[in-house]
Amino acid sequence: MKNRIIALAAAAALVLCGCKAQEKKENVSVIDAGGVSLGSSEGVISYGSSTSYSVNSSSQSSSESVSSSSSSYSTSSEGGKTSTTEEASYSAAESVSQSSSDISSSSSAIASSTESLSSSSSSSSTQTSCSSSTTELPPANFGSNSYRAMNYSEVKGIWISYIDLAGILSGTESDFRSGISYIYDNCKSLGINTVYVHVRSHGDAYYSSDYFPRTKYLGGYYDPLDVMVEEAHERGLSFQAWINPLRACAVSDIGRESGNPLYSWAGGETRLVQVGSYYYLNPAYSEVIELIANGAREITANYDVDGVHIDAYFYPTTDT
Fold first, then answer.
1. pLDDT at site 79
2. Rounded to an integer, what distance in angstroms lies between the CA atom of residue 198 and that of residue 164?
3. Which domains are delineated in the chain?
4. Of 166, 199, 257, 320, which has the maximum CB count within 10 A?
5. Cα–Cα distances in Å, from 69 out to 50, 64, 72, 96?
């Protein structure tokens, strides 16, 4: 009898311990790195800021478990350890998805607000403009050029400015060819192997351009850049096309820009600003950047230059 009582007491103690253990195990709460509660779990290891697995904690292999619940989990790109949950926690994954959706909506709202502010700003600047701001640049149809540039590892260069060219541009093509040949021969005698030659100094072009008018210094109807490149290469000189990107024309010369972007931007426009007796391009506008870039592209597409040299910006400052 005594032995039966001891046995019953031992059995009751075992049942009580089992209940306590089960109760303790079910009260384990898991929070992942992103702060999302995944509910009660059996030995869960969580990882990632938005990773929530719902996999049965049975004795199946891990591959089978993942396969059985492939439609009920979301993953992040972060590496880590596998987590297993006893109960499906769809609400947590949905919560993360919903949060992502909210963030996307907020981003869209911010983008919309930014676009609205940008439009408002554009409208404001348009109202203060004396000319139309809807002027579009000519279509950018640049051809291909298979020419392989000729450049030297040790550069011995010289700059040939519009001031040097002005005196020899006013005559015929033959006169210009003789004049530039004389300059190049002088360069060769000094050991020069690279020439940086003006092709745009005042919002103009020393070549055939879709964006800028031909330089006012040109007397005949020929292409100075064609001549300059040809004569340079005949002497083994690397030819760098030199551009002043922001300095435009004198106020008195704006009429020569008729039919080109600079003309439509003059007269109060903020893309082309007047300081003293000159106009200057304002690089804060995407249209201005596009104009400068297209002006460089048409040179490299149509002429066998060995480089484009953007130098001497001549941009006005607040200094007196």
1. 38
2. 9
3. 2-93 (no CATH), 157-310 (3.20.20.70)
4. 199
5. 17, 9, 5, 18
